[in-house]
Amino acid sequence: MEAKEQPLSGIRVLGLEQYVAGPYCTMLLADAGAEVIKIETPGTGDPRRYLAPFATNERGEKSSGGFMRFNRNKKSLTLDLKQEEGKEIFRALVKKSDVILENFRPGTMERLGFPYEIIQQLNPALIYASLSGFGKLEDLRGPFWDRPGFDIVFQAMGGLMHNVGEKDGPPLFLGVVLADLYTPTVTAYAILLALRMREKTGLGQYVDIAMYDCMAALNEGSVAIYSYTGEVPGRDRPRFQAPLCAFKTKDSYVALMVPTENMWVRFCRAIEREDLIKHPLLSSGILRGKNFEDFLKPILDEWMSQRTNEEVVQTMLKQGVPVGPSQTAKDLVRCPQLAARKMILEIQDPVGGKKKIVGSPVKFSRVPEIEPQPAPLLGEHNQKILKDLLGFSQEKIETLRARNVI
């Protein structure tokens, strides 16, 4: 029997958020049924609303694909937190909410008059989550705590870019905003832990997540290698196993990895080179890594170049060797596996019409998926939130609008 409610039904989240990391975190919560109220500056809103790519309708109106990606299933409330009336509205919302998520620069919430200590007095049960570059908890502050930063900065500092690219080339950006996506995923997980603790204690707490911390955590393998061997992994051959890379085929590229001796045997059978199984240069993962570039790779390059992606994939799968094609966005949209998993969804952009988006990877057996709703227009839910949730009169709402409080 399907559950009637979503996992986070009844949880209200206030999103003081912008760009990617904060909005992605609250989107994950909204996908699980939380009511997310995105608080935006009157007249402008989230800067992401004005970043490409755009869809334009016949009236010349523009809609940002970047904003649509991270703000589905939310409500938008415009609120000037610098005006006292705006602060009063925010205080009223805090008393009726369960979570605050903010990803402003360090010191911003304090300047607005809403540090955790004040929020805690207003609502002791509220979870206050800060997502920042280097962390905000005072007793854990390092020398970088108040620095600004974007995704590429944290990929570089976390050591991930050091591991990507050609051996003699520069560190490379990974091509996906990993810090902006992984950090909010960790933040959403931390918020759930805090909500679970609240069930036990009745109290909320401060959740402090840093993008730099998360990138360092993703690069834990390099730290372990350095700790055990004294070597700094870099942009060169695999150290302890091979093959581990993408190979060029007749029509594109395929990627594979051979991590164990049993799989090495199956791989050699797949390429019909059983003579390589016990070859003195290839008889262990360390040796295959050591002799990959000069000896093993030319052999594999020749075999791959004579076959299409599909031929390589099917040949490897028959021997139980994990393999996959290097795919583009176009391939993902058309992938039958992703379609079966309901990962490619269609959403109705109010300006651009029907668009494809990536859905939530979280699947439940007893919870129906939420039909994705488009990202809200700026201030779209002002009336509903102020009137229905806070009980404001229409006259008061119009006065607030005239004063640019909302």
Let me know the number of strands. Answer: 13
Q: How far apart are the termini?
A: 43 Å
Structural class comes to alpha/beta
The name of the CATH superfamily of the largest domain reads: Crotonobetainyl-coa:carnitine coa-transferase, domain 1
Kindly report the spatial arrangement of strands forming the biggest sheet.
5-2-1-6-7-8
Q: Can you walk me through this structure?
A:
The chain is of the alpha/beta class. It has 2 domains: 12-218 and 342-402, Rossmann fold; 244-330, formyl-coa transferase, domain 3 (2-Layer Sandwich). It contains 17 helices and 13 strands. The strands form 4 sheets. It has a 6-stranded parallel β-sheet with strand order 5-2-1-6-7-8, sandwiched between helices. Strand 3 and strand 4 (62-64) form a beta hairpin. Helix 6 (151-157) crosses helix 8 (211-218). The radius of gyration is 25 Å and the shape is elongated.
Compile the SSE list and pairings.
Blueprint: E1 12-16, H1 21-31, E2 35-40, E3 54-56, E4 62-64, H2 65-70, E5 75-78, H3 84-95, E6 99-102, H4 108-112, H5 116-122, E7 127-132, H6 151-157, H7 178-201, E8 206-210, H8 211-218, H9 220-229, E9 244-248, E10 253-257, H10 261-270, H11 285-290, H12 292-305, H13 309-318, E11 323-325, H14 329-334, H15 336-340, E12 344-349, E13 353-358, H16 382-389, H17 394-402
Parallel strand pairs: 1-2, 1-6, 2-5, 6-7, 7-8
Antiparallel strand pairs: 3-4, 9-10, 10-11, 12-13
Compact summary:
The protein has 17 helices and 13 strands. It has 406 residues and is α/β, with parallel strands linked by helices.
